[in-house]
Amino acid sequence: MSHRTPPDTYDIAVVGGGNAALCAAITAAEAGARVVILEGAPEPYRGGNSRHTRNFRCMHRGPMSVLTDAYGEDEYFDDLMLVTKGKTDEHLARMAIRTSEECLPWMESHGVQFQPSLSGTLSLSRTNAFFLGGGKALVNAYYNTAEDLGVEVHYDAQVTHVHRDGQKITHLEAEIAGQPQVVRAKAFVLASGGFQADIDWLARAWGPAARNFLIRGTPYNRGVVLRDMLDQGADSVGDPTQCHAVAIDGRAPKYDGGIVTRLDCVPFSIVVNKDGERFYNEGEDVWPKRYAIWGRLVAAQPDQVGFALIDAKSIDLFMPSVFPPIKADSIPELAQKMGLDPERVAATVAEFNAACRPGTFHPTELDGMATEGLQINKTNWARPLDTPPFYGYQLRPGVTFTYLGLKVSDQAQVQSPEGPIRNLWAAGEIMAGSILGQGYLAGFGMTIGTVFGRIAGKEAAAHVA
């Protein structure tokens, strides 16, 4: 199936094979278009970063499917503004938020099944709908739906060039299973992700520190199509140094470690750098609104590494880690096992413990249990590290996806200084920087991909018709 020679002309060629690409392909095929998906990865790795996702952040006015209570547009938007610090296109963001409400039933009607959120998953039962079987099950369901609709799928299909002629795209050049091919279509949807797997590009943007980053997303998102469009004068949006980067286990693989490598222990930890010094408030806010800043914080430390230290009181308060923590009976022993200066770390912990103030500890909400008098105070969940055994994790920056992307309109149409490119749309991580200027909100990447994937598919099909 994946090695047939493509026919002369399709109605729509979709570049990419993750959530946004699939939503676009399904929507266009349901409108009667003849659609091909060109997925750069081999079949077992199809789906891009969507394979690693777990949930979808969704606005709703009352209980809906697995979601409890209500989560309105303004609260959702405020949550987004908090993490992006205002670096967002309000119009596009509110459109994505409002449209997310109708996406959930659409997803269910196209084979995606949901489950109630597990306890300990960042307390998201009201705001985020979790996929039964995770992102891989969602990807598989959408591929089944697409194939039922007659969408043709090619794997190992790396698009190398999108041919722009004025305000129109004429064809794609691709390597399909190693053979050069030309793919012609009347309309095109680019949904091929960010550039994070191209370490040289990351290093050009960030500096040499980026060579120490781990890429927790797919190794196939190298930004080839994004680079090609920027080189051809498409409008860009976002900053090449901004990305969704979280603190992950330092033992994770260089690529594709996915969601299981994330560590959720930070709010209950003391986090130090390799010099044994704390460098940020670990208890600033609840974890769904703060987990995505820690990749960047760790990236700014010497050797791009941090160390989270916890005690026996906290070991069961977060999702278990994929690798067991380092364990010791004393803080100096723990420091030594982690390659840190035992005296320096013991002094930091002693100073922190002495600064903790009494209060009532609430692990799932802001409890105001804070330290007093430190250069960097911890403002919630601050309890002394005093109960052995002690545990530690090495933290490294894990990049999920980059925010430099293509500027799009409300209709997901790709823009250029000469105006919109008439038959070109984009969805997902290749345009997410339009909305995510910095920071990240759990489940929001899937929201952007679903909303703009459906819009791109609908608009491309209307253009062809």
TrEMBL record:
GO terms for molecular function: oxidoreductase activity. The keyword Nucleotide-binding does not apply. It holds the Pfam family FAD_binding_2. Residues 11-437 form the FAD-dependent oxidoreductase 2 FAD-binding domain. Its cofactor is FAD. Keywords: FAD, Flavoprotein, Oxidoreductase. This is Tricarballylate dehydrogenase. It comes from Paracoccus alcaliphilus. The lineage of its organism: Bacteria, Pseudomonadati, Pseudomonadota, Alphaproteobacteria, Rhodobacterales.
